[in-house]
Design brief:
Elements (H helix, E strand, L loop, with lengths): L7 E5 L3 H13 L6 E6 L16 H8 L3 H7 L3 E3 L1 E5 L7 E5 L12 H12 L8 H7 L19 E3 L2 H14 L3 E4 L2 E6 L6 E6 L4 E3 L2 E4 L6 H6 L4 E3 L8 E4 L2 E2 L8 E6 L2 E7 L3 E8 L6 H10 L10 E4 L3 E3 L3 E2 L2 E3 L5 E2 L7 H14 L8 H27 L7 H8 L4 H13 L12 H10 L19 H17 L4 H8 L4
Parallel strand pairs: 1-2, 1-11, 2-7, 4-15, 11-21
Antiparallel strand pairs: 3-6, 4-5, 8-9, 9-10, 12-19, 13-17, 13-18, 14-17, 15-16, 16-17, 19-22, 20-21
Helix pairs in contact: 1-6, 1-9, 4-14, 5-14, 9-10
The structure holds flavin-adenine dinucleotide.
């Protein structure tokens, strides 16, 4: 049989996307037959942010066989149980978007529907039925939870230092055979027959040839966007934030097991607790506030004393219409960008890598594989887009031109339908393998102030004499399990404290 295997993969870029891709490809396709090479430029550097994740990252680490404590220690990381949203629906209000689910479904009914009918009588808000939410309130974390109880499961993710994460993955990728070149790419050569990228040339004249190219070059999208001209689908009509200013501050004595996102006059501010410092940044729309006012706002609201100078970043929400074109697959910022409100970029990198592995090409580069990749990755970005827009649009805030704009703008039909279904009877459906769970949608829809007018009528078939006691038992189990968990600061001290 003809050997059609790809002999050389070249990854352009050594940020989070490049090194995650290099680690996975070196581990799963690299070897005698296939070389995995990565090119990065110290002069250009990386975007250097991207420090909060969602639970799917555990799957990536497990796939690579990474030891959790070693990983958290090396990246000076902490654990994350969800995101606290402050001042989003209205100034003065806050809500928690937890990982995991609320309560236990009964007769196939989503728990929030049951709670909508019985919760008031029981006197416990929906949040009391989520173990991560209750634990987070008190700064507690334990990865085990209580596995014997259906309520005791803990879903969690990590916060980590982006630079240390890339370094950690580099160590892993190189140990698995990835080859690294340092240098700035100044030229790209294409095959005259099929238009494939054939090689890249570095400033010092070195030429690196390959059969499959992974474009992880960041916002510039050097191969997919610049060289192959794949258009960018711009979503800034719905997501007008296009700038960020980031500035770390001194770490906090008590490590909160969650990211905080606080809405501000023309955007929002993140706070990410790490072991050695706190990550802070303000994401904003330059149409509504300028860089110096944004920096002042950030500095005035830092979690501790500033460490270093403010870093300014520009971006555009949207994605390349085809992340895989000819023999180039873009992963990371080169494929698209959605602001970090729900910490989804690193997940989208990992999901791109998983789909690439599932559809890994041979030298024929079959259209059917490329098209499927483009369909799946496109749907993954689109699903996240609607969820992010929801946070801006569903608000009662009318205290600034920015909030008036996002509150009154038209949103994609797919999101409008979701909002209307929820408003009618609290129903939520997930489409096309979408990332966010029903719990996520419910947490954010309710948190942003969309109250259903009614609950699902099927709930009326439940035994009204028994359900309230079942709910009381669930809430007290959760409170008990949470109270037995250690504080995250102690947990880290015991298992994975960075030296
Ligand atoms: C403000 C902000 C906050 C964010 N927060 C989060 C978050 O909390 N969670 C999350 O999941 N994601 C977050 N992200 C996204 C996250 O930072 C990125 O998805 C992630 O860092 C991946 O970036 P990248 O590797 O694609 O690009 P980059 O980090 O920009 O890396 C690009 C690489 O390409 C190389 N390169 C470029 N051009 C050339 C050339 N000509 N020659 C050689 N090398 C070249 C560079 O040297 C670099 O190594 C955030 C992004 C922003 C902007």
């Amino acid at each position: 049989m003809t050997d059609r295997r790809i002999g050389s993969v070249v990854i352009v870029g050594g940020g989070t996307a490049g090194w995650m891709t290099a680690a996975a490809l070196a581990r799963f396709v690299g070897g005698e037959q296939t070389t995995v090479t990565l090119i990065e430029s110290d002069d250009i550097g990386t975007v250097g942010v991207g420090e909060a994740t969602i639970p799917t990252i555990q799957q990536f680490n497990r796939l690579l066989g990474i030891d959790e404590d070693d990983f958290v220690r090396a990246t000076k990381g902490t654990f994350k149980l969800g995101i606290e949203f402050v001042d989003w629906g209205r100034v003065g209000e806050r809500y928690f978007h937890p990982f995991g689910s609320y309560g236990v479904d009964i007769n196939g009914l989503d728990f929030h529907q049951i709670h909508a009918k019985f919760g008031h009588g029981v006197g416990a808000p929906l949040a009391d039925f989520s173990l991560p939410t209750v634990a987070a309130r008190d700064g507690r974390f334990d990865r085990a939870g209580e596995p014997r109880s259906p309520l005791g499961r803990i879903d969690y993710a990590y916060h980590f230092d982006a630079g240390l994460y890339a370094r950690y993955l580099r160590g892993y990728a190189e140990a698995h055979g990835a080859i690294r070149h340092e240098g700035r790419i100044t030229g790209v050569a294409r095959d005259g027959e099929n238009g494939h990228v054939a090689s890249v040339t570095l400033a010092d004249g070195r030429e690196v040839a390959g059969e499959l190219f992974i474009d992880c070059s960041g916002f510039r999208s050097l191969l997919l966007g610049e060289t192959l001209g794949v258009p960018f689908d711009d979503w800034s009509t719905w997501l007008p934030c296009d700038r960020a200013v980031a500035m770390p501050s001194t770490g906090e004595a008590s490590l909160a097991p969650f990211t905080r996102a606080t809405a501000r006059v023309a955007g929002w501010q993140w706070r990410i607790p790490l072991q050695h410092r706190t990550g802070n940044g303000l994401v904003y729309s330059s149409a509504f506030i300028d860089a110096s006012a944004a920096t002042d706002l950030l500095v005035a609201n830092l979690a501790g004393d500033p460490l270093g100078e403010p870093r300014h970043l520009s971006f555009r929400a949207g994605r390349r219409v085809r992340p895989w074109e000819r023999n180039v697959v873009a992963i990371g910022l080169a494929a698209g960008f959605l602001e970090p409100l729900e910490s989804t970029s690193i997940h989208l990198i990992q999901s791109g890598i998983a789909k690439l592995l599932a559809l890994f090409p041979d030298r024929r580069f079959l259209d059917v594989e490329r098209n499927e990749y483009n369909r799946l990755v496109g749907a993954a970005y689109d699903g996240v887009r609607d969820f992010i827009i929801l946070h801006y649009h569903a608000t009662a805030r009318d205290d600034s031109p920015f909030w008036n704009h996002v509150r009154t703008m038209a949103v994609p039909d797919s999101l409008q339908r979701k909002i209307e279904l929820f408003r009618a009877k609290g129903r939520v459906f997930r489409y096309d393998d979408e990332l966010f769970s029903i719990t996520s949608w419910v947490a954010v829809l309710l948190g942003q102030g969309i109250a259903p007018s009614d609950y699902d009528p099927v709930v009326d078939a439940l035994d009204a004499a028994r359900v309230p006691d079942a709910l009381r038992a669930m809430a007290s189990d959760i409170a008990r399990i949470a109270a037995a968990m250690p504080r995250q600061t102690d947990f880290i001290g015991r298992h994975c404290k960075a030296v």
